[in-house]
Design goal:
Helix content is 35%, strand content 24%. Strands 1, 2, 3, 4, 5 and 6 form a six-stranded mixed β-sheet that branches. With 161 residues, the protein is an alpha/beta fold. The protein has one domain: Rossmann fold (3-Layer(aba) Sandwich), CATH 3.40.50.
């Protein structure tokens, strides 16, 4: 962690690197520290003004490692945004609800959410090569950049880069 960076992007990317691409895009736009969940467990998050938390969606929810990480936190107010990649990203409000509830119970403020399509080969989808094979694509990553710019503008006091 660099002491000058008030934003951390914490993610899990399991199968195809879909979520890692989003996390890298967000980290670049915010000038943020980029941490896997495993790295974040060993890092003090106290100095961060904003956390981005994301993973792929599995069985309608974020990856279990990310959910378990949030569950391990002591109750403390934090500003957070949620992101994900999914085969059916249009369901993101429903897919994010489990993580959102955990964060709110921990005293966090969820300032925004982002989701885009990701290459999904889970379950029987692998038989046909999956869905959304070329996602996130350039258009998806540009949407992620615009999301980060808007979020940064709305939260300028904690995102001075």
């Amino acid at each position: 962690m660099t002491s000058k960076t008030p934003v951390a992007i914490i993610y899990t990317s399991v199968h195809h690197g879909n979520t890692r691409k989003l996390a890298e895009t967000f980290a670049g736009e915010f000038g943020a520290d980029l941490l896997t969940v495993e790295e974040a467990v060993a890092t003090s998050l106290a100095g961060y003004g904003l956390l981005g938390l994301g993973s792929g969606i599995y069985c309608g929810r974020h990856d279990w490692r990310l959910r378990q990480f949030v569950e391990s936190w002591a109750t403390s107010p934090r500003r957070v945004f949620i992101f994900s990649t999914a085969g059916l990203s249009f369901l993101h409000r429903l897919q994010h609800s489990s993580l959102r509830r955990k964060l709110v119970r921990k005293g966090c403020t969820v300032v925004s959410e982002f989701s885009c399509r990701g290459w999904d080969t889970v379950g029987p989808l692998w038989l046909m090569g999956g869905i959304n094979r070329h996602h996130p694509n350039v258009r998806d990553l540009n949407r992620a950049k615009e999301f980060a710019k808007r979020l940064k503008a709305e939260n300028f006091s904690i995102c001075d880069t």
